[in-house]
Design goal:
This protein is 65% helix and 9% strand. With 352 residues, it is α+β, with helices and mostly antiparallel strands.
Length: 352
């Protein structure tokens, strides 16, 4: 226990630093910022509760109510904070399911505490686990599984190798937490949670730096790095919006941004399951497909979606698109050059 208390100043300072960085960061989404902020504040409070429970365990009986409350809030909030943080990673798209889980745990946890099945404080002000303590462990592990699920979904926006990181971090989370479950005198759960939140924060910033803020697609810098790793049988698609400057001049930049947003969503919905989608310029986009034989079918589907969407718009937006397959003796420069050439050839034909 003494060794754990030595780490507390470091943990509290880490939480304060993370709170400051979260508030000052202008690049992460509002949902992620809210998730980090609430999680860091919550962990600050729960860590304080754990410290109180350590100091008050076996102390004077007059401190029994405070001892009870410190344990109560620790058990109640730990899984809830993890679920809230996981929901924030998913931009609260499945908030209803998360709220149902939180409400279920809240009712069950209070019931177990009232009946002294989760924990109880005896007449000597000493803490004891209840005979249904394992139910708390199940909910704690379920909250970590939910966090893993949302992390994997979020990591799909970036590169596939982030899956490995998500599995590794969740394994670290579960393994470290299990130590305190098996040996209650080893206070390691709070250290694990805070370190994991710190790593998640760093990971979130790394992913944020991969994306274009307006469209949500991978950005130009990511594209320039990725094309150097092109492999045989991959396909590069280059496309841009025809006469986009005129759209901005005639209908305003706000409408132009709206068009960029729709094109980006359509690119992702059509091509996203087969490769990675990028915004590489003002109105220019690229897609790098993994091995896939029916490129023409995907392109036809994309062009139809764009045509159908802008049929009733004041602006009849059109797209010029070219693609190139990576052959056996190709270099990435040749593949990009062919895709560009094919796109501009189609653009020239439209002007005739």
């Amino acid at each position: 226990m003494t060794q754990y208390l030595y780490t507390l100043p470091v943990l509290f300072m880490m939480l304060l630093c993370m709170l400051f960085l979260t508030v000052a960061n202008k690049h992460i989404s509002s949902a992620h910022k809210k998730g980090f902020f609430v999680s860091f504040i919550g962990e600050f409070f729960v860590t304080g509760c754990e410290v109180l429970s350590i100091f008050l365990n076996g102390s004077a009986i007059t401190f029994k109510p405070i001892h009870f409350l410190s344990n109560y809030f620790g058990f109640l909030l730990t899984p809830i904070l993890i679920v809230f943080f996981a929901a924030a990673i998913g931009n609260f798209h499945r908030l209803k399911g998360a709220l149902i889980g939180i409400f279920t745990y809240f009712i069950l946890c209070n019931g177990l505490i009232i009946t002294k099945r989760l924990f109880f404080i005896d007449e000597l002000n000493t803490y004891h686990r209840g005979n249904l303590f394992y139910i708390y462990i199940i909910f704690y592990f379920l909250s970590v599984v939910y966090l893993l699920y949302e992390t994997l979904r979020y990591s799909k926006k970036g590169f596939m190798q982030h899956k490995i990181f998500a599995y590794f971090l969740s394994f670290f989370f579960l393994l470290s937490s299990s130590i305190q479950v098996l040996k209650p005198e080893v206070y390691i759960t709070r250290i694990t949670v805070i370190l994991s939140l710190f790593i998640y924060y760093t990971y979130n910033i790394e992913l944020t730096n991969l994306f274009d803020k307006l469209t949500g697609l991978l950005n130009q810098g990511t594209y320039l790095r990725k094309i150097k790793e092109l492999k045989e049988h991959q396909v590069v698609i280059i496309l841009d919006i025809d006469n986009f400057k005129e759209i901005n001049d005639n209908y305003g930049h706000q409408y132009g941004d709206k068009c960029l947003g729709y094109i980006s969503r359509t690119i992702k919905s059509v091509f996203g399951n087969y490769g990675q989608c990028y915004r590489i310029g003002g109105d220019e986009f690229a897609v790098i497909l993994r091995r896939y034989p029916n490129v023409e079918r995907l392109i036809t589907r994309f062009e139809k979606a764009v045509t159908d969407r802008f049929n009733n718009e004041p602006c009849q937006l059109t797209i010029s698109l070219g693609f190139s397959k990576f052959g056996k003796n190709d270099s990435f420069e040749k593949v990009i050059e062919r895709a560009d050439f094919n796109m501009y050839s189609i653009k020239k034909q439209k002007k005739k």
